[in-house]
C-alpha cells in the first residue's frame, strides 16, 4: 500500500449499507482509492459495532465498546451519522447522492422508497448514479420480502449439505463455513458489477441499477459441485476434507498432527510415491489415473495414512517442498498470521486512530488484513482506520456547503 495514485481516487461512494456484504463491497472500493462515505444511525451506527465479543482492546488491554467485527470491512471510509427518518436527513442524503458516482444499500426491498432514496427517485436527480442494492433474495420472486442472512443462505443453497463429515462418521452432519462466505462473496460480486457498470457509464454517460442477492451468489459459488449435480442429477454428499473429484486430496495424519496433500495429477502422485519410498503405488493399475484413484480411494487412503504417520508435518513439508508435491500444514489463526509467507506479503496492516476517534473509543490502533488486490501501477491505498461512529460528520457536512451554525442546528434537532 504505497503512496501512489490510486485506481479509484476520482470516485465518490455513498454507503448506506451495514453488517457485511455491502460494507465488504464498499471497503474494496475504498481500498482502491474511492472516497466512501458511510451513513450510520445516530447513537447506534452499523449493527456490527456491537457484535462482540471479541472487542477492541484499549491501551491497558481492557475491552472497549467497539466490536472487532466492524473493523473487518470498514477501513478507509468516512463515517457520518444521519437520521434518514427525518425530512432533513433525507434531504442531506439526496444532496450527497447528487455528488456521488455510486450508492450501495442493503435495506429490505422497497425500504428506501418511503424516504425518496430509492433508485427511481435518485436517478432523476443524478442520471450517472450507479445504484447497487444488496438483499437476501433479490428484488423479485416469492421470497423477495424476506430478510436474508448468511447462515440461512448457506443452509438453503445446499452449501451446508456438502460441508462437514458424512452422517455415518463421528461428528457427522451439515456444517456452516467458518466465515460468512456468502456475505463476503456477495460483496466481491457486487464490487465487480459496480466496476462493470462504471465501464458502461464511460461509454453511455448513464448509471444503472444493480440487483445483488445473497441467494444468487450462494448458488453461484457452489461451483464444480453445482456443475456436477446439474449435469448428472446426482446430489453431492458431505465427505469431510476429501474431494469428490480428486484423490489423494485431503488431510492426512502425521507423527505430530496432520497435514494437507493436494495431489491433482499423475506426475504429482508419482513424485509423492517416490519420496514416500512407495513407488509401487504409482505402478499399481488401481491408482494409475486420478479417476481410478477416486474410485479406489477406500484402498489408497488407508495405505497412505499408514505411511504419513511415520514423519512429522514439518518433515513431510521439507521432504516434498522441492518435488512440486502440494503439501502444507493445517494452521490455526495464530499460526497462519505467523507464517513467513504471510509476513512477507505484508498481509497485516496496523493503523493509528485519529485523535477524535481515540477519544471516543479509547483504542489507539487497529489491525486489519491487507487488501489482496495487488495492482502494480495503482496499488490499494491505506488512508483511514475504520472510523469511530460519526467521526467525519462535520467534515462531510462542510463539504456539502453547510456552515457551523447549520451543522449545530442539525445536531440539536437530532438529524445528525
Architecture overview:
The chain is an alpha/beta fold. It has 2 domains: 278 residues, Rossmann fold, CATH 3.40.50; 84 residues, formyl-coa transferase, domain 3. Helices cover 37% and strands 15% of the residues. The strands form 4 sheets. The protein has a 6-stranded parallel beta sheet, with helices on both faces. A hairpin with a 4-residue loop joins strand 9 and strand 10. The longest helix is centred in the middle third of the chain and has 24 residues.
Indicate the overall shape: elongated
Would you list the SSEs in sequence order as H and E? EHEEEEHEHEHHEHHEEHHHHHEHHEHEHH
| Total tally of structural domains | 2
How widely separated are the two ends? 33 Å
CATH superfamily of the largest domain: Crotonobetainyl-coa:carnitine coa-transferase, domain 1
* Total number of beta strands: 13
- Major sheet, described briefly? 6 strands, parallel
Strand order of the largest sheet: 5-2-1-6-7-8
CATH class term of the largest domain: Alpha Beta
Task: Determine the CATH topology of the largest domain.
Answer: Rossmann fold
Taking pLDDT < 50 over at least 5 consecutive residues as the criterion, the unreliable ranges are none
Name given to the CATH architecture of the largest domain:
3-Layer(aba) Sandwich
Question: What is the topology?
Answer:
Layout (H helix, E strand, L loop, with lengths): L11 E5 L4 H11 L3 E6 L14 E3 L5 E5 L9 E5 L5 H12 L3 E4 L13 H7 L4 E6 L14 H7 L24 H24 L4 E5 H7 L2 H10 L16 E5 L4 E5 L3 H10 L3 H5 L6 H6 L1 H12 L4 H8 L6 E3 L3 H6 L1 H5 L3 E5 L2 H7 L3 E5 L23 H7 L4 H9 L4
Parallel strand pairs: 1-2, 1-6, 2-5, 6-7, 7-8
Antiparallel strand pairs: 3-4, 9-10, 10-11, 12-13
Helix pairs in contact: 1-5, 5-6
Amino acid at each position: 500500500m504505497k503512496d501512489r495514485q490510486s485506481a479509484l481516487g476520482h470516485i465518490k461512494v455513498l454507503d448506506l449499507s451495514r453488517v457485511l456484504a455491502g460494507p465488504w463491497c464498499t471497503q474494496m472500493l475504498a481500498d482502491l482509492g474511492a472516497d466512501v462515505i458511510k451513513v450510520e444511525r445516530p447513537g447506534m451506527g452499523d449493527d456490527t459495532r456491537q457484535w462482540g465479543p471479541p472487542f477492541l482492546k484499549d491501551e491497558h488491554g481492557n475491552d472497549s465498546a467497539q466490536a472487532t467485527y466492524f473493523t473487518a470491512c470498514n477501513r478507509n471510509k468516512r463515517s457520518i451519522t444521519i437520521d434518514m427518518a427525518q425530512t432533513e436527513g433525507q434531504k442531506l442524503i439526496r444532496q450527497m447522492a447528487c455528488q456521488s458516482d455510486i450508492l450501495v444499500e442493503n435495506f429490505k426491498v422497497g425500504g428506501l422508497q418511503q424516504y425518496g432514496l430509492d433508485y427511481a427517485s435518485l436517478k432523476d436527480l443524478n442520471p450517472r448514479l450507479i445504484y447497487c442494492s444488496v438483499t437476501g433474495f433479490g428484488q423479485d420472486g416469492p421470497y423477495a420480502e424476506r430478510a436474508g442472512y448468511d447462515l440461512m443462505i448457506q443452509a438453503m443453497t445446499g452449501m451446508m449439505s456438502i460441508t462437514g463429515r458424512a452422517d455415518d462418521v463421528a461428528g457427522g452432519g451439515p456444517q456452516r463455513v467458518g466465515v460468512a462466505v456468502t456475505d463476503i462473496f456477495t460483496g466481491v460480486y457486487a464490487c465487480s458489477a459496480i466496476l462493470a457498470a462504471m465501464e458502461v457509464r464511460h461509454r453511455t454517460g448513464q448509471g444503472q441499477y444493480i440487483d445483488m442477492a445473497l441467494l444468487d451468489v450462494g448458488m453461484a459459488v457452489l461451483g464444480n459441485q453445482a456443475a456436477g449435480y446439474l449435469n448428472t442429477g446426482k446430489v453431492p454428499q458431505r465427505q469431510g476434507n476429501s474431494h469428490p473429484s480428486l484423490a489423494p486430496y485431503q488431510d492426512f495424519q502425521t507423527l505430530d498432527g496432520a497435514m494437507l496433500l493436494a495431489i491433482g495429477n499423475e506426475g504429482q502422485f508419482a513424485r509423492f510415491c517416490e519420496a514416500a519410498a512407495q513407488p509401487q503405488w504409482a505402478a499399481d493399475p488401481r491408482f494409475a489415473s486420478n479417476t481410478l484413484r477416486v474410485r479406489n480411494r477406500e484402498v489408497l487412503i488407508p495405505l497412505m495414512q499408514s505411511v504419513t504417520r511415520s514423519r512429522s508435518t514439518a518433515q513431510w513439508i521439507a521432504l516434498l517442498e522441492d518435488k512440486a508435491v502440494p503439501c502444507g500444514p493445517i494452521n490455526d489463526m495464530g499460526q497462519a498470521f505467523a507464517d513467513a509467507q504471510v509476513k512477507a506479503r505484508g498481509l497485516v496492516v496496523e493503523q493509528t486512530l485519529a485523535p477524535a476517534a481515540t477519544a471516543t473509543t479509547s483504542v489507539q490502533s487497529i489491525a486489519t488484513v491487507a487488501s489482496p488486490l495487488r495492482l502494480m501501477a495503482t496499488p490499494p491505498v491505506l488512508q483511514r482506520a475504520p472510523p469511530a461512529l460519526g467521526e467525519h460528520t462535520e467534515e462531510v457536512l462542510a463539504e456539502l456547503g453547510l456552515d457551523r451554525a447549520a451543522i449545530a442546528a442539525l445536531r440539536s434537532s437530532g438529524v445528525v
